[in-house]
Every structure is written in C-alpha cells, then in structure tokens.
Amino acid sequence: MIFQLRIIPLLPLLGAAYLILFGRHHGRRTVQGIACTAVGAAFVVAAHALWVGLSVNPNGLTDRVGTWFSSGDLQVDLALRMDALSGLVCLVVTFVGALIHIYSTGYMAHDKDTARFFAYLNLFCGAMLLLVLGDSLPVMFIGWEGVGLCSYLLIGFWYGETANASAGKKAFITNRVGDLGFLIGMFLLFRATGTLDIPGIVDTARAGSPALTAGSWWGQPVAFWAALFLFLGAAGKSAQIPLYIWLPDAMAGPTPVSALIHAATMVTAGVYMVARLGALYLLAPTAMAIVAGIGALTALFAAVIAFGQNDFKKVLAYSTISQLGFMFVGVGTGNFAGGVFHLFTHAFFKAGLFLCAGSVMHAMAGSGDITRMGGLARKMPWTTWVFRVCWLAICGVPLFSGFFSKDAIIAGAFATEVFGPRLHWVGPAVAAALMAAALGTAFYMSRLYYLVFTGECRADAHTREHLHESPVTMVGPLVVLGLGAVFAGIVGLPLVFSRAHGDRIGHWLATGVGPVLEVPYYVEWRVMIASTAIALAGIGLAWPFFGGGVREPARRFASALPHLVAAVRGKFFVDEIYGWLVVRPLRGLSRVFFLVVDRILIDKLLIGGWTVLADSAGRTLRLVQVGDVQRYLAIFAVGLAALVYVMARPAAPAEVRVRIDGRSAMVDLGAAADRLEYGFDFDGDGLEDRIGDGSSAQWLYAHAGHYQVRVRITDPRWNTSRTLTRTVDIP
Amino acid sequence: MPTYAYILVSLALFFVGCAGVLLRRNVLIVLMSVELQLAAGTLALLAFSRALGDQKGHVFAFFVMALAAAEAAVGLAIVVSVFRTRRTASLDEVNALKG
Question: Is A239 in contact with A319 (CB distance < 8 Å)?
C-alpha cells in the first residue's frame, strides 16, 4: 500500500488550517490555488486508492491511525476504511468538491473574504471525508458534526445580514435534534453489541445475533430502536420530515455552498449512513418501513411545496429535499445500491443545477427571483445548455442519468421483499407515492426552466443590459457536471438492457452494502414505460401554464383555488406550526426559568439571601455597640463571672476505667483530687449507689445485662459539678 | 483584728468602686472609682500578706500604687483632651464609636 487513507481527509484539513491561520497574508490567487490544490490532490489520492487499492483488496482498505480512546470495554480506534461504498461517496465528494472550488474562484471573485470562504470550504471537505471514511461510529460522528459546523459557518457566511445568520442558527439547531438521535442510536448499538466499529456492528447484524434481534420496548427488537434513532439523525442531516425545515433557509449561503453542501454531499450523509448500516436496518422491517414511508412522504410533500416557490434556489432546495426522499425510499426498501446510485447521479445534476442558479444570479446582480427572469437562454448559452441537461436528468427523461437511478429506486420499491408479509403493502405504496412525486418534479422543474430561460426577459432595463455569460472558471465546472448529469447513469443500466453490463454499480457495491436487489423484468419494463410517460407528461403539462412566462391558465388556477395556492406558497405553514408547537413553548419555558429560577431562586434567594442575612445580622448586632463604655464594662463583668464559674468546675479525669470481673464492676477515675465529692450510679436508676470522696467504687450486679453507669464529681466549695456516663455490658 | 475584717472592708471598697465605675456618668468620678477598686485590691493584698507573714504582698502594694499613679496621669490627660475637643466630661456624650 503506497498511500495511506489518512492522507485523503488530511489534505483539505491542512489546507483549511493553513488558510485560517495565514490566509489573510496571501493574495486572492494564492488562497484559491491552495484551496483547489488541496481538494484536487485529495481527489487524486482517493481515485488512486479506489482504483489500485480496491483491485488489490476488494474487501476494502483500512488505515488504523491509532487508538483514539478506550474506557472499560469500549475501545475506539481512529481508523479509516475505504470499501466500495465509502470509496464511491469519497470520490463524489472530492470530485464535485474540486469542481465547486474551481467554480467558487469565479463566483466569489468579488468577495473580500476569500480566505475565510475557502478555509471553510476546505474544512467542509475534510470533515465530509472523515464522515465517509470513518470506520467507527464515533469517528463518523466527528465528521458528522464537522460538516454541520461548516454548514452553519457557510450559511451565515455573509453574516452582515441578520437573516443569513439566523438561517445558519436554524440549520445548526435543527440538526442538533437529529444528532441527539444519532447519539442515542450509537449508545443502543454499543449496549447491544459491545462495539462501535462499523464492521463489527455490521457483522453482528449479518449474523442475526440475538443481541440485536432480542425484543425490547414495545415488543420491537433492539435493532429497531437503534435504527430508528439513527434515522432521526439521518433525517436531520438529510432534511427529511420532520426536520427538513432548515434546508430551504440554508439557501442564504453563497450558491457554491448550496451546491456542494446542501445538494451534492452533506445532505446525502444520512442516506450514506443508512446504507452503511444497511445490515442493521434489514433486521428491523418496521424501521425500514418507517424510513421508506418518511422518504416517500418527504419526496411528495417537498415536490408540492416547490410548485409555489418563486426563488430560484428555494425551488432547488425543495427539489433536493424531494430527491433525498427518493434516496431514503431506495435504502428503506433494502435497495441500498439503488439509493446510493441516486445519490451518485443526483450529486452531478443537482450540483449542476445549483451552479447554473449561481451563474444566473451572478448575471442578475445577485437576485434569484424567477418572476423577474425569462429569456435568459439567448444571453447565457452555456449555462442554459447545462441547465437543460440537468433538468432533463432530474425529470427522469430516458437516457439521462436521473432516469436510471430514479427507476432503480421505484422498481426496487415494487419488487422488494424486505418488509415481510405483514408490511408487504409498503413497497407498492411508496413506489406509487414516488411516481406522483416524480410527476411533481417534472412539473416544477419545467416551470423553473420555462420561467427562467424562455420567453421575454422581465427584469428591469438596467439588469437586462448587464446580462452576461459567466467566466470560464464558472462555465468549465458547469460543463463537466452537465456531462456527468448525462452520462453518470451508465454505471447503473437496468439489467434488462444487458445482463452482462447492467447494474455495474450494484454489483460493485455488493461488497459494501449486500447483494443486488433482483427486479423482475416485467416490473422493470413497466416502471420504465410509466416513468418515461410521467416525465414527458410533467414537462408537457407545465408548458401551457408557464411556457414563456406565467400564462393565463396558471393565473386562472391561482384565482380559482386561492387558499390552496396560498398554502403552497406559504410552505403549508410548517415553520409557523413548529413555531407554535416548539419554539413558543420553549421560549415560554425559558421565560419561566428566567423569572423563577434565575431572578427569584438565584438572584433573590441564593445571592440576595446571603446579603440580607449579613445585613440584618449587622443591623441586629450593632444594637450591642451602644458606644457606652460603662455598659461594655457591665457585660465584661457578667462574662468574667460566667468564665470564673465555668473554670471552677472540677477537672474531668483523664479516663474512666471500668474493670468487669464476672458480675462485679469496678469504676476507677484515677487519683482522687482533694475535697471533691464523687457519686456513682451503677444501675442507671437515677439514684446514686455510692457517694463519697473516693474516686473509685465497686458494684455487684444481680443480673446480666446492659447498664449505664453515671459518675458525678462535685466541688462542694463552689457547688459546681460535672457528670460522666459510660455503658457496661455484664455477661 | 482578724483577717476577715480587712477582707470585708476590701470587698466593700471594691463594690463601691464597681458601682461608681458602672453607674456614674462623670469621667472624673469614674476615674476616682477605679482608684477605689485599686485601693481595695491593695488592702486585700496587705491583709493576706500580714496573715500569711509573707512580704510579697507588700511589694505588690507598692506596685499597685505606682501603677495607680501612672494610670491616673494617663486617664486625666485623656479626660482633659476629650474635654478640650468635646466641651464635656460626661460619658453619655462620648460615644463616637457607637455601632
């Protein structure tokens, strides 16, 4: 092994560290060069490791850097692993990452904070690679949190505007909810399997170990709960219901960020994680059904919301949420290769779409309002062509990449057997939902295309004059991604086309995610015909409404159903509902805590209480300080008298020795002092049994038992006395 | 005379002095009462010295006289100083250190 895997994430991480520390001392060109080189080199190393390394060792390469921490039974290695699955995603991340770095050199050419931007972008790539390559859940979690951090930093990159900063916070906080799920899932897995290494967990799950299949709460196996909580984490990161709300707001960040983080790579981390732990999910059909169901629901729901959005990037954001739903249906139906295949093709066409959006907004002076666009095809030919192929790809027009990956998922959902007899209906149900979502996708994407690129330009004269094609640093990556959007599907041709060359990606991924899901040919054919019809129908249907601008039927539809249109425009008011259900109660609770705990308990009682105590003690004690010397003297005299009285008491003897001899007890106080009187009560009846000036006395008990002996010493001159007690056991 | 007679006189003197110190308000009277207490102590020392035939008591009596003279000098100096600044010799009105 020539290369070590650790080099792959280390390169961008080092780039980020250097740029953060010294970036501002360098010119724009140097900064861009360092950042692009770091990611480009990571791509080269990753490609080398994948091509050369995996051909030598098809089961995967592992790079153990060392023990990270160990505690009791838990040992976590800082280890990286590249198998077919992580290698593929790693390649996508570095390839798309490098392209978007290059694109950013053009897009961010006028921003004064170049070093910070590229440092964050490099940091993101490093964290994402750590997430992908991490061989244990904790290492993966570090990457997971790292990409979340970069997402936050880059959404709020233009922090001068409050809206951007709040969008960053919203993304971060929403993801915290999911991260909690990830952590709980991790704990459950550790408790059940005793390891956090992904291969260890996967092997335990493949073996169907009773540690994971044993029933737990509500009669569900442990695997179900672990899978469900991990899926909560995935839903946070990958913007699924109920945690999708952060992604549309994340569009506040610069467009390359939206393309890289919020379309191509980070948001697919949840899909990747479910695929990585696929064996675990297969043990819990109910969890699989939930994953697939949520995916289908999200795909449909987000597609509907996308109808009503008028911001270029918002449409694409909802489209991303919808496509992520497709991927979750893929992994949720046991069709892990299908889900990852869609992840792969989506990375190309969605990144391409976003970069086209960036290119358009670059030309439109930063505005993304599609109602003010139109007719851009003539002004921006390259951008338009790339957008066209990406649009056809996402719509699922045959021979474009999206067609194959989307079909693989839908056909897989029809054919899957993972749900078992009781939940068998889930597969066809989610497949039907996805078909509806695909129709929606074709419709809203066509609406976007028609409104932006066809018809007459609706922008004001000033903007119209400045319309221009973007520089070559931006168009270059666009074209590469466009080619990817067309041809990426080749790796996953359906088996019906060629038994020998079909579904290469599935066979290739089989070492990582398990055997290929076999789809009967008749299902495959029907799905292909149906989705071709759906794609063309969506594209065709959108023309009468939006071809060349908003047309009469669209206006009539809006005025006929104003409430529906308002609900879609308002994103079904989910943000507002969450505001009522979660944010307001939380704020109320915080207010209660602030007023009761902070203001009253801490400020008034714990802090104020002591001051009041000290103050009132001072006020009380000052009454003693009357300033009258004679009163002081009187108190002094009383105190002196008391002291004399106390000092005059007879001294306590050094020890009270008790000797027991049979029933006889002898109490001895040591040497007797002069003129003192001693009284002894042996049987604890309160009456003294021996009185005199002797310091010792003897007593014969009649019965065995437990007695209390009391000795009184009195000085008759002062009439002061001292009493000592002891207990004795008489056998 | 028996020793207890001297002791009784000493006690009487001491309590008269105590009463004066604690009850009178005029600083000069208080100082004089302190002298009475010292005199009571001296008398007790002398009485015991005579009863026990030990000369140490006499020595202490001289010590006490010297001490009383010094104390009277310092005390009167303070009284004069206080009178100069506050125009009073009454303890009721000298209470600047009141809490």
Answer: no
DSSP, residue by residue, A645-680: HHHTSPPPPS--EEEEETTEEEEE-SSPPTT-EEEE
Domains of chain B: 3-87 (1.10.287.3510)
* Tokens 């604890």 -> residue: A684
SS3 A39: helix
Listed range (A260-264, A316-320, A560-564, A667-671) with the worst mean pLDDT: A667-671
Flag whether the pTM goes above 0.90: no
Minimum distance, in Å, between the CA of residue B71 and any CA atom of chain A: 17
Quick check: B96 and A627 CB within 8 A?
yes
Nearest to B95 among A624, A628, A634 (CB): A628
- What distance in Å separates the CA atoms of residue A470 and residue A108, rounded to the nearest whole number? 12
Percentage of the residues of chain B whose pLDDT score is greater than 90: 66
From residue A121, how far is each of A86, A166, A258 by CA, in Å?
21, 20, 11
Interface pTM, i.e. ipTM? 0.81
- Mean pLDDT over the full length of chain A: 88
Q: How many CA atoms lie within 13 A of A151 on its CB side?
A: 37
Arithmetic mean of pLDDT, A610-628: 87
Q: Per the omega criterion (within 30 degrees of 0), is the bond before A515 cis?
A: no
In B, what residues contact A, Cβ < 8 A?
18, 21-23, 25, 30, 91-92, 94-99
Contacts of A135 (CB under 8 A, 6+ apart): A62, A77, A79, A80, A81, A197, A198, A199
Alpha helix positions (H), A488-628? 504-513, 521-546, 552-560, 562-569, 574-578, 584-592, 608-621
d(CA A339, CA A275) in angstroms, rounded, equals 8
Helix, strand, coil tally for chain B in percent (to 5): 80, 0, 15
- Average pLDDT value for residue range A428-456: 93
Alpha-carbon torsion, ordered A129, A133, A137, A142, to 10 deg:
-20
pLDDT higher than 60, residue A563: yes
pLDDT digits over A154-205, tens only?
999 999 889 999 999 999 999 999 999 999 999 999 988 888 999 889 888 8
Q: Indicate yes or no: CB of B95 within 8 angstroms of CB of A637.
A: no
Per residue in B48-82, pLDDT (tens digit) is 999 998 899 999 999 999 999 999 999 999 999 98
User: Which among B14, B15, B21 is the top mutation candidate for probing chain A, defined by the most A β-carbons within 10 Å of its own β-carbon?
Assistant: B21
Least confident of A186-190, A457-461, A645-649, B86-90: A645-649
Under DSSP, the state recorded for A551 is -
Question: What is the number of CB-based contacts under 8 A between chain A and chain B?
Answer: 31
Residue A654, pLDDT > 70, answer no
The answer to whether the CB of A369 falls within 8 A of the CB of A313 is no
> Average pLDDT for residues A103-122, to the nearest whole number?
90
pLDDT band at A1 (very low <50, low <70, confident <90, very high): very low
Residue linked to tokens 């869609």: A342
Dihedral of the CA atoms A582, A586, A587, A593 (nearest 10)? Answer: 170
**Are the C-beta atoms of A492 and A405 separated by less than 8 Å?**
yes
Task: Give CA separation, A203 vs A208, A289, A446, A529, A718, in Å.
Answer: 9, 22, 45, 39, 90
A541 alpha-carbon distance from chain centroid: 39
Confidence of residue A622 (pLDDT cuts 50, 70, 90): confident
Domains of chain A as residue ranges with CATH: 291-569 (no CATH), 657-730 (2.60.40.10)
Sign of CA dihedral A248, A250, A256, A262: negative
Rounded CA separation A648/A533 (Å): 114
Question: For chain B, what is the total number of helices (H) and then of strands (E)?
Answer: 3, 0
Q: What span, in angstroms and rounded, lies between the C-alpha atoms of A650 and A631?
A: 32
